[in-house]
């Protein structure tokens, strides 16, 4: 009897141990299954969110294609509002290149005394090159100066009768900095050198051109802001009419629990499509204008003995223009829809 009781106790302990061993893995797997289920729910929601965005983008594009004439006129109005700031941008870009060339042409002319011979002129040029704010120098002899003077004025016969050359040896100095204060300081230092008669510095025309360029930049910025507001108004008015035409549909979906973000989404894509289409039309208008004006501008530049071509938008500029137009269309749609959704009360 005693042995049978002992065996029963052993069997009960073994059965209990087996049950604990059987239940323990299940308890360990419970948190993993919960984490997996949460991850699955998040991924399914993300896929549903992406599907809805693709559906709304395609649906809004189909609505634009369904009424091509009216929507094309809206995009054309956006394109016209974008062409002028973009054209000014291109003009200022070419002006920046011109400004860089002007910086290279900003020089000082050091006139030596008439009694200076070639050996003294070389020593003076070495002293000028020793200045830390001087990039390079070029010596012009008296004979070279007279030849250039005769060629520029066309007075060969009149100047040929002169008994002596009245022009001195000169040194053209290209400074390291083209700032007016730095060039004035360099001119004062060069005038103090022995054998230097005069240092000629003329920056008035460079300053005028820089002031005009700065004025152009500010005008372009102001026009860009004004025409950007015009794009917002055009897109906002178009989206407002679209919201009013679908008012009943919006009320129904809001009654069944749709959020403002859900309702706003198709209109935002419509605004983005308007902006993108307007940007593409603006690029086309800029290309046509460039092609139309390139020949007369080239002929005018050739008549002055120069070569000039109208600037064009590169890949970076085209991407910036399309991005700005799309963003303006999206922002105009967001403002219009947000304002009108606050006034819609489902009944």
UniProtKB/TrEMBL annotation:
Keywords: Cell cycle, Cell division, Cell inner membrane, Cell membrane, Membrane, Transmembrane, Transmembrane helix. Residues 1-41 are annotated as: Disordered. It comes from the Bacteria. The chain crosses the membrane at residues 72-92, 219-239, 272-295, 315-337. One of its GO terms (cellular component) is cell division site. It is found in: Cell inner membrane. This is Cell division protein FtsX. The lineage of its organism: Bacteria, Pseudomonadati, Pseudomonadota, Gammaproteobacteria, Oceanospirillales.
């Amino acid at each position: 009897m005693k042995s049978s009781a002992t065996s029963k106790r052993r069997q009960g302990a073994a059965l209990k141990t087996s049950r604990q061993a059987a239940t323990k893995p299940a308890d360990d797997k419970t948190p993993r299954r919960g984490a997996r289920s949460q991850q699955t729910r998040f991924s399914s929601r993300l896929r549903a969110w992406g599907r809805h965005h693709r559906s709304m983008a395609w649906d809004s594009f189909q609505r634009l294609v369904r009424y091509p004439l009216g929507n094309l006129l809206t995009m054309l109005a956006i394109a016209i509002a974008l062409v002028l700031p973009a054209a000014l941008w291109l003009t200022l870009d070419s002006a920046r290149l011109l400004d860089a060339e002007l910086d290279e042409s900003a020089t000082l002319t050091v006139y030596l005394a008439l009694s200076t011979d070639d050996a003294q002129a070389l020593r003076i040029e070495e002293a000028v090159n020793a200045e830390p704010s001087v990039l390079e120098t070029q010596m012009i002899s008296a004979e070279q100066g007279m030849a250039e003077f005769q060629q520029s004025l066309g007075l060969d016969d009149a100047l040929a009768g002169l008994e002596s050359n009245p022009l001195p040896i000169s040194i053209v100095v290209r400074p390291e900095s083209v700032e007016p204060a730095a060039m004035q300081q360099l001119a004062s230092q060069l005038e103090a050198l022995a054998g230097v008669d005069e240092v000629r510095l003329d920056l008035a025309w460079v300053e005028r051109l820089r002031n005009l360029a700065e004025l152009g930049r500010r005008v372009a910025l102001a026009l860009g802001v004004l025409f950007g507001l015009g794009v917002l108004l055009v897109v906002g008015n178009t989206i407002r009419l679209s919201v009013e035409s679908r008012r009943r549909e919006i009320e129904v979906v809001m009654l069944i629990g749709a959020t403002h973000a859900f309702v706003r989404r198709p209109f935002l894509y419509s605004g983005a499509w308007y902006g993108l289409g307007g940007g593409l039309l603006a690029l086309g208008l800029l290309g046509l204008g460039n092609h139309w004006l390139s020949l007369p501008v080239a002929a005018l530049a050739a008549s002055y003995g120069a070569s000039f071509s109208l600037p064009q938008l590169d890949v970076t500029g085209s991407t910036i223009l399309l991005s700005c137009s799309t963003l303006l269309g999206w922002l105009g749609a967001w403002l219009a829809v947000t304002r009108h959704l606050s006034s819609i009360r489902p009944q």
